[in-house]
Structure formats: structure tokens, C-alpha cells
Amino acid sequence: MPLFLLFFALVPVLLAIAQDVPTQSTLQLTVALASVGTFGLMLGLFWLSRLMPDNTVKMKYSSSMRWHKYIGYVAGLFFLVHPFLMIVRRFWVQESLPMDNLVLMVKSPLMLTGIMAWFLMIVLVVLAFFRKKFPAKVFRYVHGALSISFVGFATLHVLKVGRHSNQAMSAFWIALAGVAVVSLLVSYIKPLLKRNEEAVQ
């Protein structure tokens, strides 16, 4: 794995550990740390993409895309089971009703951003599996647009619901997500502006 990706995964984990937020079980803490680390790693995928205007990752294209694909699949699959991981510990608590808790969680207005991000992740994973059936340019723009939407909803979800969303962590997520999204948008707009300039000349 490119070493720079460890920054995106480890910084949120260290920030979460530093907060010393009380947890009811080791499993709950493990899932929470895995969630923030995986989300950070997913935001790091923007730096592995050739969609970036001036790719800051000095890697061969094949290596860059291979890491982007593998990490994307693993992170995507993790977040698909994320809601169930958050309540799985309740299956070992006799007084708890885990399925009722899941229904209540889904119905909560606070979870709307998480639900939107979850459905977008499903679309992203399915689209990635069938990417070869689409023209490269179509896949590029659709994948990028869905990724931006996912990052927006997921970041809002983390800020509103995350147990470790103090000021330092919130600032980290906003900065990381903001730079990633803006850079991706610039990479879309810049070629269009360049073509317009060439057409005028």
C-alpha cells in the first residue's frame, strides 16, 4: 500500500483514540475505529485517481488504479455491512432486541444522511463491478459524480452521528473531504475550459 494512504487511515484513528470516548465493549470500539479509519482511507482514494488535475501520487498508472480498485472494493464492502456491525454486539445482550434497534435506527431522522450514503455506496460498488460495460468517459464522470455525492452525505453523517466527532475530528473530515471534492471538480472543469479556449483561438 502506498505509504501516504496510511496518513488518511491512521490520523482519524489516532484522533478517535485520543478522545477516550467511553464504549460499552471492545467490539464497539473496534468497529468505531475501523469505521473512521476506513472512511479516511476512502477519502484518500481521491489522491490515487487520475481524475486529479496534477496527480500528486508519483506512481505508474496501472499501480495507482490497482490500489484504487482494491481499496475501493474493500472499503465499499465494509461500509455496506457497517449498519449491521454497529448493532451486532446487541445479539449477545439478552435484554436487547437488535432487529428492533435496527428498525429504529433506520427510521431516525439523524440517520437520513447515513442511509443516503449507504445506498450511494451500493450503486458505486455495483457500477465498479460492471465498469467495463460502459464507455470509459461515461464511467469516469458517473463514478466521479456518485463519489462526490457519497462523500457529501457520508461526511455529514459522520459529523452528526459519529461518536468521535469533536472539533479536531470534524475539522479533519471537513478539510479532507473539501479538498478531495474541490480537486475532483477542478479536474472536470479544467479540460472543458481548456477546450473552450482552444476553440476561441
From TrEMBL:
Subcellular location: Membrane
Protein topology in the membrane: Multi-pass membrane protein
Superkingdom of source: Bacteria
Domain Ferric oxidoreductase, first and last residues per copy: 39-153
Transmembrane segments: 28-49, 70-88, 108-129, 141-159, 171-189
Example GO biological process: respiratory electron transport chain
Keywords: Membrane, Transmembrane, Transmembrane helix
GO cellular component: membrane
Protein's name in the database: Ferric oxidoreductase domain-containing protein
